[in-house]
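SECTION: protein entry
WANTED: fold as tokens:
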Amino acid sequence: MQPPWVRIGEANFAVGSEYAALSAVANAGAVVTFAGLVRQQGEQGDLLALELEHYPGMTEASIAGIVEEAQQRWPLLAVRVIHRVGRLLPGDNIVFVGVAASHRAAAFAAAEFIMDYLKTRAPFWKKEITAAGEYWVEQKHSDVSAGLRWQVCE
């Protein structure tokens, strides 16, 4: 297993380069990636921009914990997570989650798990900027439900 690669910042990323890094991992039989984009339509209308804030140090530690939990649940070979912050425009890249594993089931499940937990457990704050004003985005019930399905009963 390669050490997880997590980056949070304003810099853009190239999905193809991230995929290439994961597919070059020894014994990788499956690579699953997710790339999220800033939508044109927000909660309050057409978006002019989206501003993302995070708590430096805490956010990275939170994501590292999410990745560690994924590694405990599935036999993963490599994980890459990128989350952008700052001012983004519609169509811009916002998040990348990539997982390499020997088999597809583990790669699919782990990538979905990481993305679901990023939406509910990582400390990011989003503000939509529209022609009508600026609005902080509340957490969605659908995201909470998606995260809850991964909880293990002990």
